[in-house]
Structures are given as C-alpha cells and as structure tokens.
Amino acid sequence: MMASxxxxxxxxxxxxxxxxxxxxxxDERELIxxxxxxxxxxxxxxxxxxxxxxxxxSADLSEQCKEExxxxxxxxxxxxxxxxxxxxxxxxxxxxLKSLGRSSYTLCVDGPLLIRQVLHPEASKKNLVLPECFYxxxxxxxxxxxxxxxxxxxxxxxxxxxxDCILLMLxxxxxxxxxxxxxxxxxxxxxxxxxxxxxxxxxxxxxIRARGLPWQSSDQDIARFFKGLNIAKGGVAxxxxxxxxxxxxxxxxxxxxxxxxxxxxxxxxxxxxxxxxVYKATGEEFLKIAGGTSNEVAQFxxxxxxxxxxxxxxxxxxxxxxxxxFLGPESPVTDGTEGLLFVKYPDGRPTGDAFVLFACEExxxxxxxxxxxxxxxxxxxxxxxxxxxVQQVLNRYMxxxxxxxxxxxxxxxxxxxxxxxxxxxxxxxxxxxxRLRGLPYTAAIEDILEFMGEHTIDIKPxxxxxxxxxxxxxxxxxxxxxxxxxxxxxxxxKCHKKMMKxxxxxxxxxxxxxxxxxxxxxxxxxxxxxxxxxxxxxLSPPTYAAFPATPGMLPTEAAFYQPPxxxxxxxxxxxxxNPAPALAYYSPQLYMNMNMNMNMNxxxxxxxxxxxxxxxxxxxxxxGSVAAAVAAQPAPSILPPQPGALVRMxxxxxxxxxxxxxxxxxxxxxxxxxxxxxxxxxxKRAELDGNE
Length: 692
What we know:
This protein is α+β, with helices and mostly antiparallel strands. The chain contains 20 helices and 29 strands. The strands form 7 sheets. Strands 1, 2, 3, 4, 5, 6 and 7 form a 7-stranded mixed beta sheet that branches. Strands 10-11-9-13-12 form a 5-stranded antiparallel beta sheet, sandwiched between helices. A 5-stranded antiparallel beta sheet has the order 16-17-15-19-18, with helices on both faces. The chain is elongated and about 100 Å long. The model is unreliable at 170-177, 400-424, 534-631, 633-642 and 679-684 (pLDDT under 50). Belongs to the ESRP family.
C-alpha cells in the first residue's frame, strides 16, 4: 500500500476517440471514456469501479480506439456530454467520501497526459469550468520511478511493468511498499504576465515557436491554446514584423522541458478555425524578443496585474493629456500620465505608438471601444498587448542603427572601398561605442570627460572624437570608444539625458562602423542619412588628392581621412618613395545602390524578430562585411600602380566593339591593352584603364 497526505485516493483514467497511450491528446481528439475508483488507505479498501461514456462532437473512432476500448459509435451517441459527466464524477466522489467520513482526497493518474493534454484543453475549447481537483494531481509513474529508480524512465513505464516490479520487491524489499507522495503536479489557473530581463538565463529546452496565430490574438489567447501546460511568468512573446505589426508568431517559454515537449505534441492543433504550427526554439531567440534593458520600460512594467493596451496611429503632436482625454473618464489610466509609455525613435521623434496601463479588465474593455475613433485628424487603433510586446517594440527602437549598412559590392566588380576609416579606428559591428548628441557648442573634450564621470576609466586611449561640420565648427555630436559593449550600454543607460552645462545630452549605443561613417562626413537628419562628401561620384576629388598613401594603409585610405572631420586630426606622412597622391574612384552603380539605401529613414529599421519571416529585407550585408572585404584586399587590386585609373562601363550594347568604346572616350587618353570586356548576368560591361 502507499500513503499520501490524504487517506483517500481517487485513481482516474480516460480514453479518447483517437490515439491513446504515449500519444494521448496529440491528435486533438475528444474524450469518450472516463473511469475512476476510490481507494481508502486507512481501511485498506477499494471502492466500486465507475465507468462512464462521454459523448463527443464527432463519433468517428480510430481503429486503435475501437480495439482498446471496444466501444462503438452507436454507444457513444447515447452517452452524456462532457459537462454532465464531469458533474456526475464530482457528485459520485463527494457522496462516496461522505460515506467514508473523509473530507479530502488525492487524484492519481497514470501519467500527466490525460489531465494536461486532453481534459484541460478540451474543457477550455468548450468553455467548461473544471472542478478544483483537476488542478492538482499525483503522477503515479513519476512517484514509482522515484521509489524504484532502476525501473527505467517514468514516461516508459506501464501498469504491467510497474506491477511486475512490485512483485519482485515483495520477495526481497518489503520496505519499498510504503512510500509517501513527494511531488504534486499543478496546473496553472491563469497565465501571469511580467517583464523579462536580457540578463536572465533561459533554458533552450523550455522554449517553442508558435506560428500561424491570428493577428489579433493576445498572450492570454496563446496561454489558452496551451491550457494544461504551465507557461513561465511573462513567457509569451508576440513577434512583430518589419512594420511593427504582429506577424502571427509567438515565442513561448514553459517552466520545464517536460511541458515544452508536451507543447510540441500540439503541432497543428487548432485555435478557432486556424491550425497552429509548433516548433522548437532557443532561449537566445526568446530573449531577443522578450528581454528588456530599458529602465523606462522596466519602471513602466513594474506595476503588477495591469491590463496593457497598445495604441497605434497617434498624431505626432499628441501629448499625454490628449491621450487621457481621448480615453475618457470611463477608462481611467493607472497613475494618470505615469501609465502611458510613448514609443519614440532614437532621435526623439514619436512613432505614433503608445502603451497604456489599466487597473482592470473593465477599464480596458471601455478603452477598446474607442478603436478607430478620431484623435485630431487621425483614427486610432487599439489592441490588447503584452509585457513582452512592450519590451520588443522598445528593443526595436533602442537597437535602431544610427547608420544604415551598405550592401557588399558585386563579386565580379573591381574592388573599391565603399567604407574607409581612419587608421586609428577599427570598424566592426560590435556596439562598443556611444554617441553623444546635443552637446553645447562650447563643449571641449574635458567637458565630455567630466560628463562621463566614473565611466571615463572605460574609455579607450584616444577614444574621444568630436564631430565637426563642413565649416569646421562643432556639430554638437561626439563619439566615444569604450572598452566593451557592456560598458557602452551601461554609459548609455546612466548618462542618457544627463545635463551638461545648460543642456541635456542624449547618449546612444552604437558600433565603430556607424561611428566611422559619421566621422567620414555622413550626417543623420529627419530625411534620413546623407552620404559623406567622399561618397560623391567624382573622378578627381581635389580635396583628397593632397593626402598620399602611407605604409600599412590601403592606397585610398588616406584619401578618406579628412582633417575637417576630427577635432585633432593626425595627418599621415608620405613616404619618400611614393610621392604620388592616391585617388578614389566609385562605380556609378555602386553609388546609386548606396544612395538608395542611405536615403531610407528610420521606418526601414523596425526589424522583424530573429528567425521570423520578414517582408522587408533592405540590407543583405551583415555589419562590418564591407569594411572586412576592403581590409582583405591587397593594395594593387584597388588601384593600378601606374598613373591612370580604372573606369567601369555598364549598359554597353551587345554588338559594341573596342572601336566603339574608344570612340565613346574620344578626347581622353585610354589604354587599349587595359580594356577588358566582360559578361555578367546576361548583360555586357567593359572595364578599361585611362589617364583622365
């Protein structure tokens, strides 16, 4: 016999119209049979075996079901529906307990599948309220495995194998017969929302990706789809597409790998009329979506048990008072303006999105009634939201690159650098730099060091770069290279909007590649990114011709290193053996592609979550790939050692010959030997050496 915290056990068993055994509940089939029996441990007696049929919505039985249960469709048509059978179970058990003089009992099942994968999901779909006893139970297989660890994994145990093991123990180990239940399985009543930190450790064996969700589904809808399985607090992260809208995917984090494995068995189960795909995911993917770093967001989400509503389409001039007035007194916002969170771009411009906190469901429902009503001259969309979605939206805007990533040059194109940097700055995609914006025009490096305070010890040597405008005057911007990305993030968090003299200074984390591009003369404004002067398609830039090449540098690298771009420029010295200046040349096609990307504004940088399908993919090149490609090229492949330059022609007629090309360049010195016709992608192009 076995003892528990209660002297009475209710052994519970069930079968579905489809798969049973280890695949119970995996095919989304309904219950057709419930069996239970009461065991009185105090009196060492067993009650009457109760067997009740359940009428399913569809009486189509699988062959396995017919073979194992012996039931027919005709019998099931005469049975009671699930709601009536559950009520019958409750009344029967209560009456028998009363006759025994007992007030409580422990529900025992042969594995968790019947409760977690069948009973709770089906009751949720049919909007049935289950008795409390079905939220706490004992898994006999797990308890037996603890008692007899040599019997094998709990999921592989069967009633037959457990009985065989008990018979063996009767002969040699009688003390095994007494065992106190140590683990009680629980089913969460509801999903708890909450914030997740990027520093939190998330086990990859607990995360799944759900795909095909209705766009209007909330975290509670997803939790209902996985009813019976315990989702970790704040463990539902809705994914967004490139436009910041839900893309029908979600990452879900469960409390352990066992629940994750059961969730995978719900692949292609239905939410309404849609089937949902369920796949494995990683903890890293979950943190990229749900993990937060912003103190502002953490403070916003620190209020527990709040209903979150997302507003979209707000006028850019809308103030907190305008939003409160729009929502009205029937839907008061928690803590007034403190319950509003406006989403902004890194430069402070509003995106038109905001999140609102409400203390109860009633207030949130009143707010949702304002969906598509007018504020100013715009209609406003309102949706249910989640803490994970708040984190994701704010993560997207916080991680928006300051500078767009340029695509790599075509593989057959002449290697010319599209991104060059000072020899003292190594480009890369690591975000170990910070950008200061809004500096007083009188600010010097000493003022910046004082502004940084204790964080100055984390600055790299010669790592402070003041950005000047084309007139050589301070632009109000500066870049600082930190020793690591973590230090850069810490400074951006602690110093953002800190005062310097009479102005507050904005601090953003960025990469060395982004910093280098701005230091080359690129500017960021409301219209997007403007290319630096050295990107202009001129054949003989007079400004850069004054800088000869230096040893260890690419021939064109010195040409990019302009004195007006840094407050304390270091002019490269020319070697005696190479007095000739190096010139930079740009392909017209490359320049067109570059401008096409750089004229895009921040809207492009509202990226979709990792691994999720994206409808927009503007930048195929990974950060730093262009600079790495340039650095890998030997100097002779960029510019020929002899005087002259290489010019690339595109759109050459298919029947054009060498004479036609020479005629086209009449009046310029060209080298016939240096002409190279080439075929690429079905079109014709030509490359030739010239002296002008």
